[in-house]
Amino acid sequence: MSTVCYDGPSNFIDIVEKDGYFLIKNFFKREAVEKARAELKVILDKDEARRKKNPGPHVDSSVEYRSIYTKLMHTIWFPSLQSPTYLNLTNDMFSSAVMKDFIRGLAGDNFRMRVDLIRRSSGDNDWVDDFQLPHVWHRDTLGEFTFGIFFDDMPESGGGGTAVIPGTHWDTRDPRWDLMLGPEKNMTRKHHLGNRDLLTMPADYVADAKLNQRVAKKANKKKVEISGQMGDIYFFLNDTWHGRAPNITDKRWMISRIGCFGTEFPFKDDIPLPASIKNLTGPMSEHFNRHQTPNTQTDTLLRRMAYKRKSNLLTRMAAREKDKLLTRFYSQPDIAAAREAVLNAHNV
Ligand SMILES: [Fe+2]
Q1: Is the pLDDT of residue 192 over 70?
Q2: How far is the CA of 334 from the centre of ligand 1 (A)?
Q3: Domain 12-165+224-309: what homologous superfamily?
Q4: How far is the CA of 21 from the centre of ligand 1 (A)?
Q5: Domain coordinates in residue numbering, the chain
Q6: Which helix (H) or strand (E) holds 307?
Q7: Helix (H, G, I), strand (E, B) or coil at 22
Q8: pLDDT (tens digit per residue) in 266-320
């Protein structure tokens, strides 16, 4: 019997077309989520005990399933290969008529999975600013989309969920590379070549970025922290400006995520599949197959977004403002000399 109990409206493609994300309440039977949660908790607890006993680098790829353990977050890749009840949930989600219809409208008949992961926050407060997030506003690779499953009853806000700015998937500008929206960590344009002093613009440039402040103010009014309870699921297009909201509750929260790509977009093939992937069953097994038949359906949301999105007047002007400030930054004698040095060192 399926762990999915949702039987409400199915217009999720329209919701995502408009907002770039959805939240579905009571998608799974709660008992099924609780059962999977118990299995996932054992996996996280065991790895955490190991990490505490033998502190090492944050990223540990010496184990079968990569573990990333930082002050704020504990992440383990491929829970689908480690927890049978979690695999059941995900397979039931992708087999459900409502999600199959949604994905067909989004990406076509086929899609690829890059990774699934489980993460639990440490409970440390990581608040940064009214608008800026601990994991800064960004967009990822074109054609990428993510499903999330809640394994706790999260508060409405402040639990460190994924935050999005609805509608920004239709804007051609990238918040991290084209704009400077925060009080700090405003990136230059990847011209740093490993020199960290060249990676971000100094904070004193922010005062002159008035149009960017205007973008940030508007975005701040629209931002949404996606939060839910056990049984709820969410989804976002990775092109929607997003980041991770701060956790200000002093509590630990568990969420799983499944990252996917439309077949006709360049696949971010940076995560090697473990040998045990052959043990998977159902849709999870089908979609981890890296040799999908490319989608030929022309009218998918991913295609419409990629080819029809436009620049917005305000973000276009703000991007131009950043260009000017970057030109000023790069012409500072010390920065110009540092850039020259890295270019020479890389023989560019
Ligand atoms: Fe992201």
Answers
A1: no
A2: 33
A3: q2cbj1_9rhob like domain (2.60.120.620)
A4: 13
A5: 12-165+224-309, 170-222+311-348
A6: helix 301-308
A7: strand
A8: 988 889 999 999 999 999 999 999 888 999 998 999 999 999 999 899 999 999 9
